[in-house]
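Tutorial sheet, problem 5. The two components below are modelled jointly, 336 residues in total.
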Amino acid sequence: MLFSRVRGLPVLTPGDADRLGVVRALTVDAASGEVTHVRIGRGRLRREAVVAWGALRAVGPDMLIVRSLGGPGEVPPRRDLLGSRVLTECGEERGTVLDAAFDPVTARIEAVLTTLGELPADRLLGLGDHALVIRTGHVRHRV
Amino acid sequence: MNGLTAVRSLTTLPVVTLGGDAVAHVKDTVFDPSAERIASFTLTGRTLLSGPLPQDLPWPAVHCLGHHAVMVRDEGALFDLPLSVARRDAVRGRLLGAQVLTEDGDPVGTVLDVLVEGTSGRLVAFRLAAQRELVHGSRHRRHRVYVPRGEALSVTGRTLVIPAHATTYVTDDLPRFVERVGARHDRGRGVAP
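Model answer (structure tokens):
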């Protein structure tokens, strides 16, 4: 599943199928290569909600269903993977992130698509306020 | 970074952790007293109006020096330092503007920029505003002259004294200079051309 496909999907609660909001962004832990939280927009005047990925009951192509709305515990800082600059651990820029593919069951990131090609998830080191840092190596260029 | 990099281009580079956070910007590059390699970087804050930071980044804490960022493992790499000490070190260790003489006392020029090896931080060469005695021609042409550091460089205050033979490698073309210095380096190590 692509990050860009998930963005904008409605998030529902299971019992009465109340619409909680829409997906604004996915928070990732680049070091472990996993999606950790979902950020849900609830309208202009309400703060966005943060739900741990593990609190989702189902992830479909048209909606996400939340199992429980318990507090997300420690809320991670907002870091958007999409649009972030890519930097190697040697300080060389390697384009920007266009999209990322992940497995909705395991939440593992499978690949990151950048303006310069595709990156395997095992090369991700960290995602901060400045850049997505990757291990030095060769980028698989798109044909 | 495997190639050479100009120290002037390091100014304003972000200092980025492997976690992707920018923690500072490079203000000045400080060299060791013998002008052999980079000793540390002085830092400024990240925003436009933030002044110098009371911290510096020692060279051993640098994970990698790149064209777009100075990479460090984490924020703990920055070393707390009183601002006055940081300023004093920056003035002492700054090579830009220093006068260059040969062993015979002939003025060669003043340092406009310094080329360092990205992996080791070793000082390789100077970019000089050369004197008319060293390079003939227009002033603009003389401003683009590269001179290798040489093994026998000595530093006296703000004056650098280079061996007389170092001036034989003077060139105004960086790729050709890198080629020449590389060939000389290989000969020194006994590498066949």
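Marking note: Chain A has one helix and twelve strands. Full credit if you identified this.
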